[in-house]
């Protein structure tokens, strides 16, 4: 399962005294000036530098870390380890988490939480729970993340004078938790709620984060128009807020969306912006790997093999320097396999294809192992959602009691809310169970497909070994016997002549056997003269039996196509014609290859008996799966026209193809 990564950033609202700072000192330089001005109280100076270093995290990279560490040393000397010291230390933890150094950030956030609980700093305690939740979410520890976010939200909402800015990030992060668990509808509810609050607060950075996550959710749900809308809204607000990390990451996501829609011009433009470092931003290795992999895939689809290889090699360099990112290299490995197959380097192409298949199996196994954990986490999440709903109901009840003193009416309203919450809870749980069952069936289907491919390879190897053993074994034994008799000096001259003749005959038979084995592996005619010649050779072999007539027709095709295309088409023809010969009892087969306006078609028609096409859904044989896989490699559409009880069957493969002259 290939997943898009959530936009997981921290957003902490800093309360800065407007009288001291004013609207004219909102820029980075003015905040720095306030900190350097010793005439201001320490509380004002360090609030200013706290806001300054927080903004640097998303725009100045390593410089932000250096600046925060310098400020911490100064703060410890001037104000000691006071509350403002720990709030600046919080920025250092955020820096580590944003840059994937989760162990370091976990230590810092835990230290801040312990101190804030000891000193009774409720606001800092609430933010610490939120930050710990994000840290655990980035480490895929969803249960712990949900617990931390829920505690943060509970503290924020328990204060009757609390501002929305104090707990909006917890709402947003609960959406992230649902998003990571693929509960997209629930995630969207949280993200929309957070977005509404952030729009009221006119918080550009928060709007960008919520919009980006909504774009990811809608894309994974297949609602690409909505995804595009929110991605563009995220880019606009990230630019306004100066959040370079988010600005470049969302361009990568939007570029991948356009390439998936085959809108390559827009897609590659977005990816180029994502890679552009003219604004001083350098993407982290994980982001860079994603961008260059998507760019390589786009150039492959456009037939720009050399350009695709340039991006793929950049991705390999990132992977060599960061081997821990191997699980995120599926797109890169697949792109490299296609590149080298198209360049005719089948050795490298096969090597990368095997790496892709092996990595795909590893990721599949890891995701399958994670499934049971996710089920438990989802159950815990449902419990937390129910608790949050209950807490909200209790708050509503308290407010109603204070305002109107209608105890009976409040109790009835609470009971009604509880009944609705329980009803929704069970409805959602049943629906999620069904979704999990569907996903489990899909995983089993994928596993069966992989197993069938492996069995097909092993079956082909056993067949080759049997052919070599049965065929060449007897010929070699005969040759040994003849050579032994020829070595006998007492043998008559007539016998020696006869033995030489027999040896020559055995060698001819061995030559024919070798030709048959080589033809089954890879027909020489296909490599030397192209697809049409290979198909005509196949027709000659079949027509020689005088049982079935195979006719080959080509329309507006070049003399040679790309080698990978020719091989896949030949194997599809070979597999399907073998099925017709075995089961259809046909007397005539027509094979037509044509091309028109960049669309190529392969049609195979026979006059044999029809059948129920649904038989392939339950078949344990690998032939149809091999045909389907090769059609997918061509980015093609596979259609089968037949009906049980009627005569005649048509197999139609349609795929995009533009001839490139050598």
Automatic annotation (TrEMBL):
Record-annotated Histidine kinase/HSP90-like ATPase domain positions: 566-657
Catalytic activity: ATP + protein L-histidine = ADP + protein N-phospho-L-histidine
GO cellular component: membrane
SUPFAM superfamilies in the record: ATPase domain of HSP90 chaperone/DNA topoisomerase II/histidine kinase, TPR-like
Coiled-coil region list: none
A GO molecular-function annotation: phosphorelay sensor kinase activity
Keyword vocabulary terms for this entry: ATP-binding, Kinase, Membrane, Nucleotide-binding, Phosphoprotein, Signal, TPR repeat, Transferase, Transmembrane, Transmembrane helix, Two-component regulatory system
Domain Signal transduction histidine kinase subgroup 3 dimerisation and phosphoacceptor stretches: 460-525
Signal peptide range: 1-20
Enzyme class: transferase
Enzyme Commission designation: 2.7.13.3
PROSITE patterns membership: TPR
TPR repeat residue intervals: 126-159
Transmembrane parts of this sequence: 406-426
Protein name (database record): histidine kinase
Classification lineage: Bacteria, Pseudomonadati, Bacteroidota, Cytophagia, Cytophagales
């Amino acid at each position: 399962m290939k997943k898009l990564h959530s936009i997981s950033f921290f957003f902490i609202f800093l309360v800065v005294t407007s009288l001291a700072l004013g609207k004219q000192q909102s820029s980075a330089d003015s905040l720095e000036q306030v900190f350097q001005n010793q005439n201001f109280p320490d509380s004002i100076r360090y609030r200013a530098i706290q806001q300054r270093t927080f903004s640097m995290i998303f725009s100045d990279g390593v410089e932000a870390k250096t600046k925060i560490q310098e400020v911490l040393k100064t703060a410890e000397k001037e104000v000691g380890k006071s509350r403002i010291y720990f709030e600046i230390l919080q920025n250092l933890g955020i820096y580590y988490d944003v840059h994937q150094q989760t162990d370091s950030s976990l230590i810092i956030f835990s230290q801040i939480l312990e101190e804030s609980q000891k000193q009774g700093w409720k606001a800092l305690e609430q933010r610490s729970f939120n930050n710990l939740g994000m840290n655990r979410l980035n480490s895929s520890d969803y249960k712990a993340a949900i617990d931390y976010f829920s505690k943060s939200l509970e503290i924020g909402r328990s204060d009757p004078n609390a501002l929305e800015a104090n707990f909006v990030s917890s709402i947003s992060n609960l959406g992230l938790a649902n998003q990571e668990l693929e509960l997209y509808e629930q995630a969207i509810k949280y993200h929309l709620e957070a977005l509404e609050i952030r729009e009221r607060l006119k918080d550009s950075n928060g709007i960008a984060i919520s919009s980006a996550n909504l774009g990811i959710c809608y894309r994974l749900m297949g609602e690409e128009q909505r995804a595009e809308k929110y991605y563009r809204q995220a880019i606009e607000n990230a630019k306004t807020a100066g959040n370079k990390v988010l600005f470049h990451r969302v361009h990568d996501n939007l570029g991948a969306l356009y390439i998936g829609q085959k809108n390559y011009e827009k897609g590659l433009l977005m990816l180029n912006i994502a890679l552009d470092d003219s604004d001083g931003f350098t993407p982290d290795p994980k982001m860079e790997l994603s961008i260059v992999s998507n760019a390589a895939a786009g150039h492959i689809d456009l037939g720009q093999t050399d350009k695709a290889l340039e991006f793929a090699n950049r991705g390999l360099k990132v992977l060599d320097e960061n081997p821990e990112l191997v699980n995120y290299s599926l797109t890169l490995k697949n792109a490299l396999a296609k590149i080298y197959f198209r360049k005719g380097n089948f050795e490298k192409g096969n090597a990368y294809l095997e790496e892709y298949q092996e990595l795909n199996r590893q990721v599949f196994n890891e995701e399958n192992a994670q499934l049971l954990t996710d089920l438990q986490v989802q159950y815990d999440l449902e419990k937390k959602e129910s608790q949050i709903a209950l807490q909200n109901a209790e708050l509503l009840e308290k407010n109603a009691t204070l305002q109107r003193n209608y105890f009976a009416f409040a109790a009835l309203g609470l009971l009604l809310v509880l009944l609705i919450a329980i009803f929704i809870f069970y409805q959602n749980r049943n629906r999620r169970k069904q979704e999990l069952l569907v996903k489990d069936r899909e995983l089993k289907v994928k596993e069966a497909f992989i197993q069938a491919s492996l069995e097909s390879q092993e079956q082909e190897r056993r067949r080759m070994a049997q052919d070599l053993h049965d065929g060449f074994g007897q010929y070699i034994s005969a040759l040994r016997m003849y050579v032994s008799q020829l070595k006998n000096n007492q043998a008559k001259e007539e016998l020696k002549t006869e033995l030489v003749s027999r040896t020559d005959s055995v060698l001819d038979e061995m030559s024919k056997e070798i030709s048959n084995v080589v033809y089954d592996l890879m027909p020489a005619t296909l490599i030397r003269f192209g697809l049409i010649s290979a198909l005509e050779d196949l027709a000659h072999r079949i027509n020689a039996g005088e049982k079935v007539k195979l006719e080959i027709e080509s329309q507006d095709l070049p003399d040679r196509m790309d080698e990978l295309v020719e091989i896949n088409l030949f194997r599809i023809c070979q597999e399907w014609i073998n099925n017709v010969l075995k089961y259809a009892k046909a007397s005539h087969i027509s094979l037509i290859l044509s091309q028109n306006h960049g669309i190529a078609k392969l049609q195979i028609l026979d006059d044999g008996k029809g059948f129920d096409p649904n038989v392939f859904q339950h078949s344990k044989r690998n032939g149809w799966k091999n045909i389907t896989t090769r059609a997918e490699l061509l980015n093609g559409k596979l259609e089968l026209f037949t009906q049980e009880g009627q005569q005649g069957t048509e197999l139609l493969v349609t795929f995009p193809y533009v001839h490139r002259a050598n």
